Amino acid sequence: MAVTMPFVVPRAPELPAATWSSYAMTTATVLPLVWRRRAPVTVLAAIVILGGIYKVVFDGPGQPLPYAGLIAFYTVALQCTPRVRAAVGLATVVALALSVGWETGTARELLFTLFVSAAAYALGRLQHTRQAYTEALLARAAELERANRIEAEQAASRERARIAREMHDILSHAVSIMIVQAEAGPVAVRRAPERAEAAFEAIAETGRDAMGQLRAMLGVLRTDETAPRSPQPGIAGLPELVDRVRAGGLRVSYERTGAVRELPAAVGATVHRVVQEALTNVVRHAGASTVRVTLAYGPDSLTVTVTDDGRGPGGGVPGGAPGGHGLIGIRERAAAHGGTAWTGPGPEGRGYTVRVVLVTSPLEVGN
Predict the structure, then answer these.
(1) How far is it, in rounded angstroms, from Cα 50 to Cα 29?
(2) Beta-carbon neighbour count of residue 12 at 10 Å?
(3) For residue 29, what pLDDT is reported?
(4) Deepest in the core among 181, 191, 247, 317, taking most CB within 10 A?
(5) Kind and range of the H or E element at 302?
(6) What pLDDT, on a 0 to 100 scale, did the predictor assign at position 293?
(7) Which residue has the higher pLDDT, 36 or 354?
(8) In the 3-class helix/strand/coil scheme, how is 303-320 assigned residue by residue?
(9) Which H or E run includes 203?
(10) Secondary structure of residue 174 in the 3-state scheme
(11) Measuring CA to CA, which residue among 46, 76, 50 is closest to residue 63?
């Protein structure tokens, strides 16, 4: 549109006539811009050559600005490599100097032409920088989206592992207690019928408790928000846990030392599961008659110790075989709270001890 203005605006009589041939040649200098993004250097060269032919052969109306050439030069600055830009820039300066010398030969026109060309080059480089910045932002956004997706998948995987670990603890404990009670039931029926009734009641109570905990845990996976929810068992539930194990004939003592205080629910749930796992393994493996459960409150820690008088490491490891799920679960729970887990022989080499130290922040201390 801009290159047609000299052919539309009325011209003075002394100026060259605006013929159809010169108009067609002017239009021809614009057509190569269609391919400027594919071959910017070739397009710029074609425009310069066509522009020279127009001036020398047709001597048509002049243009206020070399629009097509400026757009092609802008595209070179936008897309080409530094080496190509340097070569094209040098060639452009030479071509502009020759063109100005052919027409007027004035320094004013040369400076103006160089300034306009430099502005087109600067705009091209600015656009290149803007595009690179936009691409970097888009790449960063895509990377963040991928990272968020991976983090969500990892969180889901961790949650599934946690639920599986919780279900293992619940079922292992309940089944172990029920087996002990069931094995003692026939003997009690013959020798002490009143104890048999208590044993069967303990089996039923253990089963109901396990079902309740599993129902609450699996309810978290439901999409129905009206499903009943119950909190994870914590330290307050340890006496009931000890009573269930004690009902199986094992003498279990439970005590707390130090400045007893309220702890976060997550810490309480971990303590409950650690004690539950340790007691379950005592029932299943240790062959013990007594177990001692101790919670020692420190200024910024809580030490959970479960010690039995059973066979000890040489006669079956209550925590499970090396690499077994029992010890692995206890260690993972301790590590989740910045703590440590240790298992080994009990005092004087007798029995077995499970000791877990959980880190608690002083800011979490209650009344």
Answers:
(1) 6
(2) 5
(3) 75
(4) 181
(5) strand 301-308
(6) 92
(7) 354
(8) EEEEEECCCCHHHCCCCC
(9) helix 193-219
(10) helix
(11) 50
Please say whether the beta carbons of 260 and 297 come within 8 A: yes
CA 116 → CA 48, 51, 88, 108, 123, distances in Å?
A: 16, 17, 16, 12, 11
pLDDT reported for residue 126: 92
Residue 113: half-sphere exposure toward Cβ, Cα within 13 Å: 22
Phi, psi of 352 (to 5 degrees): -145, 145
CA distance 73 to 91: 11
pLDDT value at position 217? Answer: 62
Round to whole Å and give the CA distance between 282 and 176: 10
How long a stretch of residues is the chain?
Answer: 367
Phi, psi of 251 (to 5 degrees): -80, 115
- Considering only CA atoms, which of 320, 306, 305 is closest in space to residue 176? 320
Tokens representing 87? 């070569």
Give the β-pairing of 301-308 and 340-345. Answer: unpaired
Contact, 252 vs 293, CB < 8 A? yes
